[in-house]
Amino acid sequence: MITTSKICGITNQEILNFIINHPMPPKFIGFICNYKKSPRYLNIEKLRKLINVEKKSCKFVAVLVKPNIEILEKIKDLNFDYYQIYDCNPDETKLIKKKYNKKIISAFTIEDFKDVEKFKLYKNISDIYLFDSKGYEKSESFNHSLLKNIQFDKEVMIAGNIQFDDNLENFAEIADIIDISGGLETSGIKDISKIEIFLNKVNELKT
Fold first, then answer.
1. Tell me, what CATH number does 151's domain have?
2. Residues 114-127: tens digit of each pLDDT
């Protein structure tokens, strides 16, 4: 059952303020911290300035692709609640969680069912499982039905080319949290009108 959402790839103060102060805000807001291939990547100076705000009811998520010590040390005192980690094995993820005392969203990129089953290796580490496509920086899709009929022991977040006007009921059987980024953009920029429609759709689904 969809209970909330995550809006990812925020780069703009106006958009961030709109989301935080929305009457039906997402629980999670994500920021691209070290993946330079993404057009939504922020260097440490921009990141520090952008997220130095009152979060209200939202949780801030540092999106990290195989992070090294350098980036982890740079962001350790920033205003983050969760680290969303791609491409780290269970031992690496466990060390990051212990050292930096953050909740962990373990991100899995999916091509087939074998990729889905990797979540079992992280069950004692993760706080949330995220299932995404192999081309995550391009907002590509994957076969979401691969998640059906699996008994998960954590909340499940799904991404992968989800659009602001999709029928979110299609995901209700497989996920708790919708993760959306490119689907809220027009010409590569977050679009307030699309964000408004999406947040209202999530709220309607909850109620």
1. 3.20.20.70
2. 999 999 999 999 99
